[in-house]
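Appendix B. One record, verbatim.
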Amino acid sequence: MNTRNIAIGSVVAAVALLGATFVVTQLGPTSDDQFAQCRASAVSGGASAIGGPFELVRDDGVTVTDVDVFTKPTLLYFGYTFCPDVCPLDNMRNADALRLLDERGYDAQAAFISIDPERDTVEVVSEFSDLFHENMIGLTGSMEQVKAASKAYKTYFKKQDGDPEYYLVDHSTFAYLVFPEIGFVEFFKREDEADEMADRVACFIDAWDK
């Protein structure tokens, strides 16, 4: 991996629950939820409490909206390329889940939104996303655009004080499953493994196609 993606320092990014601003509970099936059999948890306030419109710059330099990004079931992750270990590991797991889905004939993709647009230019996020999977979209933008997307998905990030070049960013680490037109349907925690993610995503796609 390019050295720009390896942080100098020993502090790792914050774990998901540190920055999470929504409450999750164990979910029981409900008769009016087409995805009930696929869900492992629920969001306080319902799935509609997560997600919303955003405008960012894609890794090909084109300004896009959420509608342009979520053209198929998408595993969405907020992170940054200079992250020393958490982001590479999480994005590799997401990519592994995509490969398993590919093998099973499911059409899905991943998207990576940088929370460090100061360093993560279009070229940097393009290089980063290409390392993991050909169907991973890299996204960046102005700090205002990134904050708006982060707020919509109830994520947390905070730049640490320190070296102006080699600073770290604390951030939440959920991966989100987002569908075209429907929006957010599920989230995955750090401890969820690729095969488990692939199974659950496949369940959602099967329920969506019915």
